Fold this protein.
Amino acid sequence: MKSIVHRINLQTRHETEMIDITPQVLSLVAGSGVQNGTVFVLSLHTTTGITVNEGLPDLEKDITEMIQRLVPDGQSYHHARFLHSDGQMAVNAPSHLRGALLGFQVFFPIEAGAVVRGARQTVYFVELDGPQYRTFVVQIIGE
Amino acid sequence: MIDFHTHPVMIKELQESDPELARRIRDVFGFFFPAQPLEGFLLEMDEAGIEQAVLLPVDCTTAHGGAVVSNEQVARLVEKNSRFIGFASVDPLQPDAPRQLEIAVRQWGLRGLKLDPALQRFYPNDVERAHPVYQVCAELSLPVVMHCGMSWAPLGQAKYAQPLMLEEVIQAFPGVNFILAHFAYPWIHEATMLAIKYPNVYLDTAILYSGTPGDAMQKVLGEQVGLHVVERSLWNKIVFGSNYPRIDMRRCVRGIRSLGLKPSTLQCIQYENARQLLGNGR
């Protein structure tokens, strides 16, 4: 049984942004030599999300608008204070809460060397407090 | 829009090229999260709608053994991107501070002075040590961003940063424009008094103590000072400053815009007053 971990870095460009990472995930699985197993995709951050949806620009807008509607700016949040462990103001509660709604990881089976996913399923890295330099992990487990 | 108060500290390329600077940024200035590529600074400006940012170093050689970003490093950043406006910092406790300021302006092209008495540990009304530096500012027409009030730097001491100590300096150097940072929180009324009375005193909006930028600006400008005072007496005396990366620029911009100021006042705070201070409005 193999376990291969890849760390992928990316520079996001906007405060809220959905970035299609499907090609990278498929490519890493194809290059891993794993025929049967599982691929996990997870973000290393608490103000981002990983999600799956149909890869259409209008749906990307709908999803970003939905999470902004569900967790609006301008509300009174507890997380709005100086964070001594960072040396900066922690005023991004909406970003954290939007991340909590979206979740931070997805997985797919690998069968006969290919990722098992629906034809319309696109894997997104979702920036929720950008622009920032970010990292997500792709772990491939199998044989 | 111009951000008059940023610190070029959490820049990965800068820290990797100067490990001792990285140590001072952590231990002296108090930043503990990972540095980001320089590109991230510019993207943050884009996302916030900020066209230009004033870069502020702090030379605390006497108190803490070096500068939190040197004048040369600021100048190199300005060379890389014209959206940056570089200010110098010199340590008034060093005997060659006036000469160093001249070099920073004449050789490196820096356009103003940043002093942080809380971190540099000098009294801003020290005639022997600080006045010669102000004299150079008068001769070279340099605006001075003066840290006032609470310092979030772990080694900063607010006793050096009380705004009333500046009144005699303001009177002695009427030709030097002083920007009192952070609205001098918690000495807001003292700083406001100076800005209302003296033509050469300004305030910046980098008010960080608790809550979101919108909360803090509403409390200070909206309630403690009063928007009617801002509109009548301070519309031309306040510049927008975020204090990035102590906080993101995006939320600071939203904060100042949430106050309900007149569009003409907002335009002055976001842009026009800074332009005047930088000498482009004459």
About this structure: Residues 57-70 of chain A form the longest helix (14 residues).
